[in-house]
């Protein structure tokens, strides 16, 4: 706060430092545009900058600040942080699980080298840094039902390895340099108006589009493959909440968050309640199946609930109703 005064009265006006100035990397992925929307509502349109290396669609370009930023280009990143007086950085650039297995070099570059740039810039400029981790940071030797925050983490994907690396590096920078690092392990995120790209949980988004358009869906995971999942609104709210949480509430710097767990056959049964003719068939993608079989089935997020009050709004029935309504109204 800045206290301003003139001859006749004292008034308190809010300086720009009352609101964080946020940069979101990887802003054109599944989550960036949605996060920008809720952060802009809270902190003002001009205080939230979306960035990516791709050209934004016109509705994104016209809805608020957008800039080119390549996380592999340290100088470019530093220039953006300095010129825009950034105070919070949300680091959404990442190559996801299935695409990572098809292109290990790219995943290593973006998810590990890119993260090093982000950590150094954030530490150098005193930023509050959010980096998402994932259920994919666990592996076949982790307890899978449920998976607690602290347990064996030996993932078998480059995506998972890079995310364990991000968790450990962020926590190391926090302890060593005082970096305000905050990290949530997301489950599979389900969204209607943005597409995931190259993940193992993507089927749980595609099913709604195909069910709504064609009344059928070919699933690339086996019927009984149970994975933790969350509706995007819960995920974005959790992200804002952990970013705003007072430091003293954060007993840890990396938390599991969860909403529900289901398998393709359970999801299909719920869709069928609203589209009775809906048919699901299975054509297994063996790479994705092996990944899913090594991931948590249920996710224990008790620490997030106790420490900073995490609570999800959407269970499976609300998720299905919301998704089908959204997609249905969009195509009408
Ligand atoms: C993926 O499937 O790779 C992601 C994730 C769960 O991190 N959606």
UniProtKB/TrEMBL annotation:
NAD-dependent epimerase/dehydratase domain residues: 22-257
Protein name in UniProt: L-threonine 3-dehydrogenase
Species lineage: Eukaryota, Metazoa, Chordata, Craniata, Vertebrata
Interval of the full protein contained in this chain: 73 to 404 of 409
